[in-house]
Amino acid sequence: MYSEKVLDHFMNPRNVGEIENADGVAQVGNPKCGDIMKMYLKIENGIIVDAKFKTFGCGAAVATSSIATEMVKGKTIEEALQITNKAVAEALDGLPANKLHCSVLAEEAIKAAIEDYLSKQKSKNTN
Amino acid sequence: MEGKIIYFDHAATTPLKKEVLDEMMPYLTEQYGNPSTIYKLGREAKRAVELARERVAKALNADIQEIYFTSGGTESDNWALKGVAFANRDKGKHIITTTIEHHAVLHPLKYLEGLGFEVTYVPVEPDGIIDPQKIKEAIRNDTILISVMLANNEIGTIQPVKEIAKIAKEKGIVIHTDAVQAVGQIPVDVKDLGVDLLSLSAHKFYGPKGVGALYIKKGTKIHPFSHGGAQERNRRAGTENVAGIVGLGKAIELATQNLSEYAAKLQKLRDKLIDGVLSKIDYVRLNGDRYKRLPNNANFSFEFIEGESLLLMLDMKGIAASSGSACTSGSLDPSHVLLAIGLEHEVAHGSLRITLGEDNTEEDIDYLLEVLPEIVSRLREMSPLYESVKKGGK
Hints:
The structure holds two protein chains of two kinds. Chain A is α+β, with helices and mostly antiparallel strands. Chain A has a single domain, classed as Sufe protein. Chain: A (Alpha-Beta Complex). Chain A contains five helices and three strands, in the order αβββαααα. The longest helix of chain A is centred in the last third of the chain and has 27 residues. The termini of chain A are far apart. Chain B: Belongs to the class-V pyridoxal-phosphate-dependent aminotransferase family. NifS/IscS subfamily.
């Protein structure tokens, strides 16, 4: 059902935790559906220098969160915004069809955390 | 425990007993006759099928002619519901069931609704047990059938079927019970229960998969399940699964022989498990009544975590169990049973079902109680829901 890579990222998730005073934070998903991802980003000069997550969800939800944080680190905001759910799933050597929604959630979490960062920047600049 | 698999999913299936396999083997090899033929090979197969029928009848306190072999619990349930509905549609179109039935009951009922039948789904109490009075209140003049499971497959609660059957009989309504989880766990006597139809499945009590039986009380109006040859007294056409039927017969004989000792052993382990989990882990609840439940069933909900993750981590520790989380069922909603007893979606997602079997030991329970708190804690540390509880309190 799950690839070795999914199981590896589930059993040994990378970047679990929180970032104090994160530049961008977002929570996506819904506990009713059984999946919530919270992503924290540290951004310096437009580059994501650190990413952490907390996830309530199945094996695929944890694994996609883990790989997504790996994928965004070192990327510019623009590059990170280009990460698609397909890319997340491919990076895990695929996901079962009924688990593809977890990769969608990972894409949404990245985008939402960056949006949070951008809106904070905007309000800073306005002030 | 290194390398050992501890199997805690006996409600899903049980291992085949060696004694059962030994009785089945000749009918898979040299005794391959078709029971419908008249020569010796066929007669021998027929004799084996009838011996199995006798064993099933004895185990259920039924008459031999009241036992029909099927391909398993799902077929038995489908036959009982559709067969009675079609045969009695001149009398009425209303059927009563509960919200916690197995899909093998709920889905054929949905199908019947599509054909114009009307179904009342009576809700259960928060303890997972149906109130017979509510069944009585649901009865209409055109009610033709009541179907209430004997024991629930997820939370193990034992239903007051005897009381419900009495109500049905007073009104002249046919009553069916899905006893798939009950047979081999608690005494099942069709005469004492007062039911007209009862479904069972061999692989739930150490028999083979793909074979079951339907008890049909003499005189019950029911349509045949399939049309074709004259097998099963013209009610279920198709060449018999001889080896499977032989296995079912042997398995039910063994399962009912030492039932009280078996149940006492499992109940002791179950209670140790329940006490251990409730004392060692916080934010946990036991689903279903504490005592009116199968001796081998414990079902918990752990808040702030999701069931499939829990199962995967238990699997890494060599433990096989089950969950009612949506992720394990392939749907978006968690178990309808857990929702029916009033659990919120997010709590229902974090359920764990442990169903014990005869090979389980105290050592197995100790091991589970050792690893489970660590796993729950690890998953909670990863959970944003738990994070907010820790920060804000609950």
